[in-house]
Structure formats: C-alpha cells, structure tokens
Write a structure and sequence with these properties.
- Helices cover about 75% and strands about 0% of the residues.
- With about 270 residues, it is mainly alpha-helical.
- It is globular.
- The two termini are about 45 Å apart.
Length: about 270
C-alpha cells in the first residue's frame, strides 16, 4: 500500500502536466487535421476525406487574404509602437522616482482588468467625439491595439528589469563605460529577452483580437472579423489552413529561439 501511494505521489505531477498539455494542444491538433479535410458541404465541421486542396489554394477567397494582410500589418505596427513605448515606460517606472508613480502603476493594469467590450465601446465613443463617426478605420484600430497591448509590454519588461542584477551596470561604470555604452552593451542585452517576449505577446494579442477591433474598425475587416462573419454562411477549410500556418510559424520561431541556448548548454 505504501509503495502504491509513493508511486502515485511521484507521478501525480507528470500525470496532471500531461493532461494540461493535451487540453492545450488538442484544439490546435484538430485545426491542423481539418486543414487537410475535403468537406462535404460549406461547413468544415465533419471529417469527410483527406485532401490537400485547401493548402494548394489557401486564398480561395480574396476577401480572406486581404483580411489576413490587414491583420498582419496592424499587428506589426501595433507591436512596434507598443514595444517601444512600453519599454520606455517600464524603464522610467523602474529606474526613477516621480510623483504619481504609484497611481500610474495602478492605471496600467486597467486595460488588462477591464472587459474588452467595455474598452471597445469606450474607445469607439472617444473616436466619435474627437474625430467623427467617419474616422473609424485602419488608424483607430492601430491606436486601440497599442492601448491595450501597452500594459502587457510594460508588465513584461518590468519583470525582466526587476530580475536584473544592478551590480553589472555599476561594474561597467567602474570600468569607465559611458551611460550610453553601459546601456548598449550591458543593460539592453540583458533586457532584450523580456523586450522580445513583450513584442511577441503584443503581436499575438493584436492579430487575435476581435471585440475591440470590431468596435473601432469602421469598414475595415480583419481576419478575426472575417472568420466570425464567415460562420453565417460557410466555414471553408482555408481558415484552418491559415490557423495551422500561424501555429507552425510560431512553433518554428520558438524552436529557432531555443537553438542558441541548446548549443550553449551542450558546450558547457
């Protein structure tokens, strides 16, 4: 009885971790599987037969490809702006003491805590009252995405700065490095993993957002909006192809990022 209990206790964490991993990966596996399906009707919900037609012609609908292009463009711009602004805010909040710092720290969590529909309606009202009802479009989507991504960037970069050893910068100063040289050769390389993580997070949040986007998009149609609208009349296999492509690109990027660390570990 004791051996059985010890075995269960030793393997509980592995069992729970495996279940969580299966729970997380199952929807992606189904999406990848159904990207190779030849549906019997307009809805790709039931497996019919294996086919690569969707992969051969991912842009079966020109509207879908244009919506993907728009989503990627917005995500890249929002990622760059939110990463630059968020990194500067994180440095300011971690390195300087100023009046209102505590209030600003609380204020940054509001976009993360507020419901998306509330934030979307608030932004739509703001744009209506400042620039007019005809101003909604590409620019307002970018502004909205930067606003809700900014908090995530600040929190991520702040966490990296908090875990950084301050004596390294002092050592650089003792070796007669200028503040710019210290930042470029010591601080920035140490903080860069956090900055890259924040950039990828902001990109993922932007390209995946629907609620805030639909309230600030005007006549523009992003990929999440296209997918939601397509459910009214059809669900082509090409949607699974695009989703699977994004998944594979993400996995390839993560794998590529881990290669230097693996090489360094083996050399050690």
């Amino acid at each position: 009885m004791t051996k059985t209990f010890d075995w269960i206790k030793a393997h509980t964490l592995l069992f729970v971790s495996t279940l969580i991993f299966i729970f997380l990966i199952a929807p992606n596996a189904v999406m990848l599987l159904f990207s190779f399906n030849q549906p019997a009707n307009k809805y790709n919900f039931i497996w019919n037969r294996f086919s690569t037609n969707a992969w051969k012609n991912p842009c079966a609908s020109s509207d879908m490809c244009s919506s993907i292009k728009l989503s990627v463009t917005i995500a890249i711009i929002a990622m760059i702006l939110s990463t630059v602004l968020g990194t500067m805010v994180a440095f300011a909040m971690m390195r300087y003491r100023f009046r209102g710092r505590t209030f600003l720290n609380v204020l940054l969590f509001l976009p993360m805590a507020a419901p998306e529909v509330t934030m979307g309606i608030t932004l739509m009202t703001f744009f209506f009252n400042t620039t007019g009802s005809n101003s909604l479009g590409f620019g307002t989507i970018v502004i909205a995405h930067v606003m809700f991504s900014l908090s995530y960037v600040v929190v991520t970069v702040k966490a990296r700065l908090a875990g950084m050893d301050p004596t390294l910068e002092k050592a650089a100063a003792d070796l007669y490095a200028t503040p710019i040289q210290t930042f470029r050769r010591v601080t920035l390389p140490l903080v860069m993993p956090g900055i890259l993580a924040a950039a990828l997070l902001s990109f993922a949040l932007s390209i995946d957002d629907y609620i805030i986007t639909v309230l600030t998009a005007g006549n523009e149609v992003t990929f999440p909006m296209y997918v939601y609208a397509s459910f009214q009349h059809s669900v082509p296999a090409q949607i699974d192809v695009i989703g699977s492509t994004m998944l594979l690109i993400t996995l390839a990027g993560i794998t590529f990022a881990q290669v230097p660390q693996i090489i360094k570990t083996r050399k050690a």
